[in-house]
Amino acid sequence: MGPPGSGKGTQGALLAKDLGIEHIAVGDLLRAEVDAGTSLGRQVAATMQAGDLISDDLITELMAPKVTKAAQNGGYILDGFPRTLMQAVSARQTADEFNVDADIVIWLDVSPQALIARLAGRAGEQGRADDTAETISRRLQVYEEATRPLLDYYQGRGLLATVDASGDTSDVHAAVMAAIGQRLPA
Ligand code: ADP
């Protein structure tokens, strides 16, 4: 977990490679639906472009089959999910039904100033529709309101590991691996 620009996508991909498990990135899945012009893609495009969250129902519908399949293949890293308390509670219910639980929740902690600088830089490189100045500030606000409260939720469940994510990619990856190693000794 982490705010927009904290490096969830980059770190999720590195971690998946190291651990040999699937990286399920909700934002990427949504962008693929938009690019393919599917019915779901058409429903979410404007909301994403505005920097707002997609409804919990649509997200659950998108995620459930992917997670179930990855669970049968040895595990997964969720990137960008859950992002609301409702999503977290519904994910927990589903996990309980299948008798599985999250091993660790990693929070990528970065100062707001660094986030804004990174997101502005990425806008020039990737041309993501939601990396305009206006949308960036909306996404950061949505993160504070809807997603940050989840940190307390996962802290309370004893799953939260906070990693300083302000350094470069390889430093952050090493810190993430160390956090995992501490919690889940091989
Ligand atoms: P970032 O974390 O940089 O905002 P993502 O690629 O994870 O990037 O998400 C991009 C957009 O996709 C979000 O702004 C939101 O519109 C939508 N989205 C992604 N994950 C979720 C989620 N779990 N619930 C609702 N909307 C989501």
Short synopsis of the structure:
With 186 residues, this protein is mostly helical. 63% of the residues lie in helices and 10% in strands.
Helix-strand layout with pairing:
Layout: H1 8-19, E1 22-25, H2 26-36, H3 39-50, H4 56-72, E2 76-79, H5 85-97, E3 105-109, H6 112-126, H7 133-147, H8 149-156, E4 160-164, H9 169-183
Parallel strand pairs: 1-2, 3-4
Helix pairs in contact: 1-9, 2-3
Bound molecules: adenosine-5'-diphosphate.
How many beta-strand segments? 4
Shape: globular
- Main sheet characteristics: 2 strands, parallel
Radius of gyration: 16 Å
Which terms would index this structure?
186 residues, two-stranded parallel ribbon, two-stranded parallel sheet, binds adenosine-5'-diphosphate
If you had to describe this structure to a student in words, what would you say it looks like?
The structure is a single chain. The protein has 186 residues and is mainly α. Helices cover 63% and strands 10% of the residues. It contains nine helices and four strands; from the N terminus they run αβαααβαβαααβα. The strands form two sheets. It has a two-stranded parallel sheet with strand order 1-2. The protein has a two-stranded parallel ribbon with strand order 3-4. It starts with 7 loop residues before the first helix and ends with a helix. Adenosine-5'-diphosphate binds at residues 4, 8, 26-27, 30, 47-48, 51-54, 59, 80-81, 83, 87, 130, 139.
